[in-house]
Amino acid sequence: MVLFRLARFTDLFPWIRAFDPAVDASPRYNVAPTQSVAAIVSDDASKVVPMHWGLIPSWAKDASVGNRMINARVETLAEKPAFRSPLAKRRCLVLADGFYEWKTEGKSKQPMYIRRADDRPIAFAGLWERWNDPASGQLVRSCTVITTAPNELMASIHNRMPAILPEEKWQWWIDGQDRSREELIEVAREPFPACEMTAHPVGKSVGNPRVQGEELIEPVEPTIEREPARASPSKRTKRVSDDGPGLFG
Description:
Elements: E1 2-4, H1 6-12, E2 18-19, E3 28-31, E4 36-41, E5 44-53, E6 71-73, H2 81-89, E7 91-96, E8 98-105, E9 108-116, E10 122-132, E11 139-148, H3 152-155, E12 161-162, H4 170-173, H5 181-189, E13 197-201
Parallel strand pairs: 2-5, 5-11, 6-11
Antiparallel strand pairs: 1-3, 1-8, 4-5, 4-7, 7-10, 8-9, 9-13, 10-11, 11-12
């Protein structure tokens, strides 16, 4: 789940000169996996294009494979066949203003909104692929977000974080130049500095991708649930929750 406002990118980065008409230019406060995300790809580094979030390998029989490839762990990029070729030839920036992640404390889960402390936009290091739907013949372009070990801030929330590229590496990541796997992985592996990020608790409505609106990123008081002091094991009822799992695993 990420927040994306297109106008901020075109205002701050003049080398982004155009965007595909299929990109939703309205503010989106709750973008979920398998939905369309905005990206800049190595084929045309001056244009923002829509991408299906969940990489579908070119050899896949159907699109459902992408549901399991919303993330790509940096530690295995060079090993997994679905990621080796995109790492070398098809890198992308997945654009966002911030993102949500679930923080677990005991038996309680609290969604957190994370962004840059200076409120500038974020570019996740991503990979993309082309897939031809054998049923319809439609060409689908899809992507995955690389994840890495957490920095100090994110470690208090989750055990992984998206690979956030510093601005000086944005064009470098998608310039189409041949680079060694080692060099690319080293850049993606480096966690974004914790001192340049901030996080605050938000409402649990972010767990429902149908819910949109600026109120989703408004700070709330964290909810901490405690076990009843005298509840016997036989009388405890299982709590049913719609809390989301970790997004960037």
